[in-house]
Amino acid sequence: MKFLILGAGPAGLAMGMELKNRGEDSFLILEKEAEAGGLCRSETVDGAQQDLGGGHFLDARPSRGQSFLFRYMPKEEWNYFERDSKIMVKGHLIGSPIEAHIWQLPTAEQVEYLKSIARAGANLDTPMPENFVDWIYWKLGERIAEDYMIPYNTKMFGKYLNDLGTYWLYKLPTVSFEDTLLSCLERRMYGSQPAHTCFYYPKRYGFGEVFRRMAQELSDKIEYGVDLKELDCENRSVNGQYQADIVINTIPWTEWTGLRNAPDEIHKAVGELKYTSLQVRYFGWTNQDQKTHWTYFPDLEIEYHREFYRSNFLLGSKGGYYETNTDRICSEHTDDWRYVNKYAYPCNTVKKPQAIKEILSFMESRRIFGIGRWGEWEHLNADRVVEHALDLAGRLL
């Protein structure tokens, strides 16, 4: 065929739909699982839809990706929410982001946090470090670093924490001492909001519903149950069975155990790509007084790092779920519903930018293109993944 798309997650489905919308019929999507959706799949748990990949929401800020998804699941089928997320810090439940909600702590604690922020390197105009852990101290001060950011990110990234760079931190809200001080004095938030300040979530379904509908429209173009293991870069063939003029890869590069006709430096670059795995575990209880959408837990004594309250965004459901790095899973709770995502978060290590640049450059010279969270090895939200697929489809056609 002309186009071979590897993976039927958000990137692969958006690519397939855009090819179809532009009148291209010579394409095929291969998917390892029995259904489409990738990290955004949903299934019924305890009478309501549960997202297998953990917390996924559609950013409410208008975008091409959002408009594209609304074509397959209209806006009126989504609820709009203003984000309510919390952090449990040393026994105190406060708003997120932490620097904008220090005012919710006892006064003595506020003073200590403010002193720490005032001494942070960013506020003393010292050079920004290249290592993520050093950056936390430099940007936020030792109190936020040690009470929240270091333990929380240890739970998130585990053994790769000290390998993370700083080039990806544009995703985080900016912090200034002046804004933090004003928020404490006036007891309200100052400064930039984090991503998904406002978001959409389906009224009756899980987040995977929009991708299920896209897969239905592409049903004659998707083959399921195909374990993608061998990619011949010279002949653009997969598993020795499928061949195309152009290959679109959306699955993790590290899954290609048989990467043929690629030089040693590309194999080495693939080996530099790191990721974390995630367990999503359901709980059935619902706190009727709890209006929060999710809570961050930096305490290292607690197994999970985030707790989501499904009933507060999938209205009419009950319960919620924990997100836990699989390296931290305890042997108990084996009777609860749970799902393990081998590939959850790509790690932004110091070596990643050069590694993925080498991989994508080499592959593109062979008419193999990587897109999406795993094809580009970047923590992209669903609407951004869709936009990247639309851009690539337009470029190739």
Structural write-up:
With 397 residues, the protein is of the alpha/beta class. Helices cover 30% and strands 22% of the residues. It has two domains: 277 residues, FAD/NAD(P)-binding domain; 95 residues. Strands 8-7-17-18-19-16-20 form a seven-stranded mixed sheet. Helix 4 packs antiparallel against helix 5.
Indicate how many domains the architecture comprises. 2
Helix percentage range: 25-40%
Query: How many β strands by DSSP?
Result: 21
Query: Uncertain segments of ≥5 residues (pLDDT<50)?
Result: none
Topology:
Layout: E1 3-6, H1 10-21, E2 27-31, E3 42-45, E4 48-51, E5 58-59, H2 64-72, E6 78-82, E7 85-89, E8 92-95, H3 107-118, H4 132-140, H5 142-157, H6 177-186, E9 198-202, H7 209-217, E10 222-224, E11 230-232, E12 237-238, E13 242-243, E14 246-249, E15 258-260, H8 264-271, E16 275-283, E17 294-296, E18 306-308, E19 320-325, E20 338-346, H9 352-365, E21 368-370, H10 372-375, H11 382-396
Descriptive labels:
30% helix, alpha/beta, 397 residues, FAD/NAD(P)-binding domain, globular, 2 domains, five-stranded parallel sheet
Short description:
The protein is an alpha/beta fold. The chain is built from 11 helices and 21 strands.
